[in-house]
Each structure stands twice: as C-alpha cells, then as structure tokens.
Design goal:
The chain is 40% helix and 12% strand. The chain is built from 17 helices and eleven strands. β9 and β10 form a beta hairpin. α2 packs across α7 and α13 packs across α17.
Length: 496
C-alpha cells in the first residue's frame, strides 16, 4: 500500500535539524545544505511534524539529521528512535544470508528441512523454500490469512503457529503475494538454525559489528514505543494528531527500531559489499549482490529481491529500495549503485500520508540532478474539505428523506415492486461500502488486508464520510419501511 491517501488536529511543529556527527568529504548534489533546505521546505508545506534522514555515499556519511518534533514536543535528531516497519525485512534477509554463508541453510532448501514446526493446512507448504519466503512467492497471502486482524503472538514461535490452519493462495513459486508472515517464518528459521533468539542474532551478527548500538528488533507494536519511539500521527484537515498504533505482531517483518545515525552505518555496509565503514564485514560481496538481485523468474518476482525491491530512479538509473509502512509511522530506504548514494527517511506520520516515500522520492530526484515534486499537503487538505462538505450533504439529505418518507411510501404503493427495488440499490451500495471499506481498500492495494477499524487510520475523513452516509441511508430506509408498513390515515378504521 504505497500511494498517498488521506489521513486528527494539532499545530505543525517547526523543523529543527541536528547536524551530522561525521563531516562529509564527498561532493555531489546531495549536500547537507541541499538536504536541509529540501526537508525544511517539505515540512513547511505539509502536515508532517517530524522526520529523520540519513544520506551516505560510498563509505562516508554525507548527512544525518532530524527535523521538526515528535508527538512529545521534543526536537527530532539523528539519534531519535524511529520504527522502520517493513524496512526491517532487509535485516531479516541479511540474517538468513549469513546463515547461508555459515553453511547452515541453503536458499533453495525447503523451509521444513530446518523448521519442522512450520506447517499449514495446505500440504503444498512442505514445498516452500527459504528463497520463496524472502521473495514473497511462497503462496501464502493476505487473502487466505488476514494477518492484520489475527491475534497478536507473544513471540516468533507463536507467529509461526498461527499459520497451522491456513490454506495457500497459490502453489509455492507460482505467484507473488506480499505477506508479512513470510518474514516472520524466516526470522523463526534464523532462531532455530542459530540456536538463539532472533534479536540476539541480529545484535551479534549485524548491529554490534556495524556500530548500530541504538538499534533493536521487537515483537509487537506496543514494544516499538516501549523502545523509545514517540507516538506517531495521522493527518486530517491539514493537521497531524498523535494516535495509538493498532496492535500487531511485527518481529521479522516490521520490528526494527533504529536511528538515522545507525541507518547511515547500515546503508554504508549495503553499498560497500557487506563491509562497514571501519572494514568490519557482515556479509560477503556476493551475498549482498544476491540480496539486491530480483528473482525475475519467468515473469515472477520482477522486482522482488531478498528484503529489497529492484527499481529505477526518475532518471532511469538502477535503484534498490524498500519501504516500511505502519498506520502511524513510515520509513523508506534506497541505494543508488551508479552514484553510490544510500538514503533513508523515517517519518512520524502513517500510511495515509506516505511522507517518508515522498521525502525519499524528492531526495532521489535531487541526487539525480532533478527537482523534487511539490508536497501534496494542499491537495490532501482540499480533498478533506470536500469530504467534510459531503458529510454535511449526507446529513441534510437524511433529514430531507425522513421528512418525505410518508410521501415516498404513498408512491411505493402505486409503483411496481421491482421499480422500488431498483431505486433502493444505490442506498444499499452506500450501506455495504460503509460496512466493508477495508475490503474495498484491499482490492485497491493488491488484496492486502486491514481491519474495518484500521481503515480509519488510512483515510479518516473518507472513513467518517462512509459511516455518516451509511447511517444516513439506514435511518431513511428504516423510516420509509415504517411508513410503508403502517396504514395511512385513510386506511385506518374510524371510530365505532
């Protein structure tokens, strides 16, 4: 789910940058001054309260900084803890590749060879390979396991156990379906093969060697905020308001909490063949290349690499990227192999705004020597105002419909039943849309699943409009039904 939709009201806070702790010696279009100017302009033109940014080139840090403020009113810095959501998948993929290089597992091994506890109600799941987990081609999908509404597990073992009664949406290796449990299974595999908890493995093999001392991985949305992340926001009517993140299980797929300074160290290793700035190696150059290379197998997984996506920049240059989207915060990372840039952005607004994607796109445009697109804040505000006006219209039409219900009932008695049924269809469609807005959003986002309540986080004013319109139609139809069923004054028996 990537495009900006709509996302309830506090005053936008000013942007306060934190200077990078490494003086850059590289030249190029993404200077600290250019980055600061662009991000300041973005915050001034949008409801986004705050963001953190990391820019690297080759083995050097160009800039790490924080802008604006978090929901506690504290200035953002390059050491501000931020959840990175599905950017976490690239860390899980690296952990699996480390096991591959250790000789403990092969990418084309069946998962059950190393993780016997993994099973589903579909016997074909025995054929799922490790590579298929990491490229979302396992056959598991949101359409058969509605992960966003599933009970929250205590740990990775429980996350895998949730799949026991699940059917596959396709035979393994035949279709691509982006599905978080793929990476939860992969993280559990790391635990079982390595013999230690997933977080400990990441810390020992990746975080500590790269100097990512402020980075952890956690199990649940609640634990993201316990790790120091300030509450995120949704936006509506041009304002951002802090709100509680919906509960969910995250480890392996979305559980990493980090900082801009630590993400710079991560980006350097990714752009330097698995070696950190100080020469510490966490993966071979061939292993990193494998992680960045899309499957592209007979038209399958044309962009899906291992924890990354192969894309092109606006100028047509190769780009490797992955986004992370939660309901109240987002993140995005990208590597530009030709120019050597690595860019990471973390924003404290959620899916409905997609600010991290917009910011990263602007920074990529600058790196390409182009101009960033203007923020969509004004457009989204205009759309919100239109939706609020439509809520008022729905209320007026409901009042008018109730007042004229008796007249409508009299007309129904003179009309054939099928004509009445046809006239009722638009209202029934409105009611159904209000009852199932999450299903409609799912269809618009490649059958990804969210719950009815979570729809509010994505498009608050749109969600409110659907609820108001659905209730309005329901009230009008109920009053009309009463008028039809009750006898008219002329039909009522007189006094005896």
């Amino acid at each position: 789910m990537a495009p900006s939709l709509l996302s309830v009201g506090l005053v936008l806070l000013s942007a306060v940058p934190a200077s990078a702790d490494v003086e850059p010696t590289v030249s190029g279009p993404l200077t600290p001054q250019a980055v600061d100017a662009y991000v300041h302009d973005y915050l001034d033109s949008s409801p986004l309260p705050g963001a953190t940014v990391a820019i690297t080139r080759g083995t050097e840090v160009v800039h790490t900084a924080g802008y604006g403020a978090d929901s506690r009113g504290e200035p953002m810095t390059d050491d501000t803890p931020m959840g990175v959501a599905s950017v976490s998948k690239s860390f899980t993929a690296l952990a699996v590749l480390q096991l591959v290089e250790d000789g403990g597992v092969a990418l084309d091994d069946p998962v059950v060879d190393h993780l016997p506890e993994f099973s589903t109600a579909d016997p074909r799941s025995a054929d799922i390979t490790v590579r298929q987990l990491l490229t979302h081609t396992s056959g598991m999908a949101d359409s058969t396991f509605e992960e966003k509404g599933a009970p929250v597990s205590d740990d990775l073992a429980g996350a895998v156990a949730r799949l026991a009664d699940v059917e596959l949406a396709a035979a393994p290796g035949t279709e691509e379906h982006y599905h978080n449990p793929n990476y939860q299974v992969a993280a559990r595999l790391v635990e079982v093969v390595s013999g230690r908890p997933f977080g400990e493995f990441l810390d020992e093999r990746t975080f500590t060697p790269l100097g990512m001392d402020d980075t952890v991985t956690v199990d649940s949305a609640d634990e993201v905020f316990e790790a120091g992340v300030a509450r995120g926001h949704i936006t509506v009517l041009g304002r951002a308001v802090p709100i509680v993140e919906p509960e969910g299980y995250l480890n392996g797929s979305s559980g990493v909490v980090t900082t801009a300074a630590d993400m710079a160290r991560w980006l350097i290793a990714q752009n330097n063949g698995g070696t950190g700035a100080d020469g510490t190696r966490v993966l071979s150059e061939a292993g990193v290349a494998t992680a960045h290379t899309p499957l592209d197998e007979d038209g399958l997984g044309e962009t899906a690499a291992l924890g990354w996506r192969a894309r092109e920049s606006p100028s047509g240059a190769p780009m490797v990227a992955h986004g992370g989207i939660q309901f109240t915060y987002t993140a995005y990372q990208t590597l530009l192999p030709e120019s050597g840039y690595g860019i990471a952005v973390m924003a404290n607004t959620g899916l409905g705004s997609s600010d991290s994607y917009a910011l990263l796109s602007g920074l990529v445009a600058l790196a390409d020597g182009g101009e960033p697109d203007a923020p969509l804040g004004a457009v989204l505000l205009a759309v919100d105002l239109v939706l609020v006006a439509l809520m008022g219209l729905a209320g007026y039409l409901a009042y008018r419909g109730v007042r004229r219900a008796g007249t409508w009932a009299e007309a129904v008695r003179r009309r054939s039943w099928w004509r009445t049924a046809v006239r009722l269809l638009p209202g029934l469609a409105v009611i159904l849309t209000a009852v199932f807005p999450n299903r409609i959003l799912g269809l618009l986002s490649q059958n990804r699943h969210i719950t009815w309540e979570q729809t509010f986080y994505v498009i608050p004013t749109g969600f409110a409009l659907l609820v108001v319109a659905g209730l309005a139609v329901t009230v009008v139809y109920a009053v009309r039904a009463v008028c039809v069923l009750l006898p008219t004054a002329a039909e009522r028996p007189g006094p005896r």
